[in-house]
Amino acid sequence: MKSNLKPHIVVLGGNFAGLTTARFIREHCKDDVQITLIDRKPYLIFIPNIPIEVFANHDPAETLHMPIVRVLEKDETRFIQAEVKEIDVKGSRVAWVSATRITLRISNRSRKRAFSFPMGVSLKQN
Questions:
Q1: What is the pTM of this model?
Q2: Which of 18, 22, 19 is CA-nearest to residue 9?
Q3: In this predicted model, what pLDDT tens digit does every residue of 66-96 receive, in sequence order?
Q4: Domain locations in the chain?
C-alpha cells in the first residue's frame, strides 16, 4: 500500500544557511515535500554589518532585523519558534522546547504580580 504522506524535512536554524537551505529545497522539490524550519527567534540579523550600522549611528536591531516568518509562509514552509533539545537520527525525530513564553498576570485590590512561563508548562493548583 502506497502512503500519501509527503516526506517531511526539518531544517534546524533560521539564519542564512538554514533559510537558504529551506528555500533551495522548496525550489527543487516543489510541493512534493513538507518543510519545517525550527529556530529560537523569528528573525534574522545580519551580524557582519553591525559595526557599520553603529558607526553610522543606526540601531542594528532595527536596520539589520529581517523577519523570516513571512518568507517561509510564502514558500509554504512551517515555522516553529523553539529551541532544539535533542536529535534522534535513527528515529528521525527532533525534540524541542517552545521559545515563546506566556505571561500570567494575577491581581487583586492590594497587589499585582506577573509570572512568565515557557509555553507548554502545566500550571496546577495544590
A1: 0.71
A2: 22
A3: 899 999 999 999 999 998 999 998 988 999 8
A4: 8-100
Place of cell 512534493: 32
82 grid coordinates: 523553539
Cell triple for 38: 525550527
Tens of pLDDT, residues 21-55: 999 999 999 999 999 999 999 988 878 888 998 89
Asked if residue 80 lies in contact with residue 68, where contact means CB atoms within 8 angstroms, the answer is: no
Whole-number pLDDT of residue 20:
94
Q: Which residues contact 22 (CB under 8 A, 6 or more apart)?
A: 11, 35, 37, 72, 75, 77
d(CA 21, CA 39) in angstroms, rounded, equals 14
CATH of 8-100, one of 3.30.70.3420, 3.20.20.80, 3.40.50.150, 3.50.50.60: 3.50.50.60
Contact predicate 34/78, CB 8 Å: yes
In degrees and rounded to multiples of 5, residue 68 shows phi and psi of: -100, -15
* Residue 120's pLDDT band (cuts 50, 70, 90): very low
